[in-house]
Amino acid sequence: MEIEAPDTLPRELMTIPLHRYRKFTTIHVRLKPEAAEVPGVLAKVIQPISRRGIAIVGLYTSTMPEQYSYITMFINSTKISEEELKSLIDEIRMNVGEFNADVRVYTSPVDGVAIDPYSFPITAMGSRAIIIMYHSLRGIISGLSRIGAEMILNIVGREIGKAGFEIHERMVGRDIEKLMKLHEARFVMSGFGIMKVEHMDMEAYEFTVKIMYSIECEILEELKRPSGSYFIKGILEGWFSELTGKDMVAYEEKCISRGDPYCQFKIKPRPT
To answer: What is this structure's pTM?
Structure first.
C-alpha cells in the first residue's frame, strides 16, 4: 500500500545551510509587543532591504503579549559593504521608530551558515524547549537498545505525554475535540511525525492512532532493529492515560521498521 506524502516542507530552525562562500548577516529587530497587532510593520522592516536588492534567505517573527515582539532576518551580505549595512540598519530603525525599535546586527564568522545569537531560550507554548537532532536521538536509541534498556525510552515517553496533556488541558479545558487537535499539532510541531487520531471511543476508552514518518521508527529501520516503538508508544500511553484517567497501553499494530507503510497504534486500558 503506497502512502501519499503530505503537502508539507521541512522547516530549518537554526541556520541556512549549504550556501558555501556566501556571507550571512542576521538582522534582529526588537519592538514593543503591541507592534505584532499593527498591520504593515513587517513591510516597513523589509522595504529598505528589498529596495537595495538584497536577498532575504530566512525570516521569522515571535511575540509574547505584554512582553516582547521581534522580527529576525537572515540576509545575503556577501556583496554588502560595512557602510551599506550601516545605512540599511539606520533606515530600518527609522521606519519602525514609533515602536521603540532596537535593531541588532550579527555577521556570521562562518561562510554559508546563518547564526541567530539573539533568540534564547527556545520556547514552545510558553515553555522552554530544546532541539534534539536526528543523529542525537539515533545515538540515544542505539545505545539503549544495545544494552537492552529500551524500556527507559517508554518511561521517558510516558512522562512527556503526561506533561503534554496537562499543558493542553490548561489551554482548552476538557473539550475532547480541541484536545485531540492540539495533541496532533504538538506532535507534528515537535518533529516526532505526522499523527492522526483515526478512531475514538470515549465510552470504551479505545483509540486508533496513525503516525506517518515516525522519527523513532525511521531510526529503528536504519539501525536494522525492527523491534517497534518504545518512545512514541510511551508518549501516546502517557497522554491518553491523562485524558481517560485509566492506565492506557498502546499496541503497535503496524510499524515502518517492520516494512509497513506507516505506524498504527491501538490504545486501550491495560488489562487487569
So the answer is: 0.85
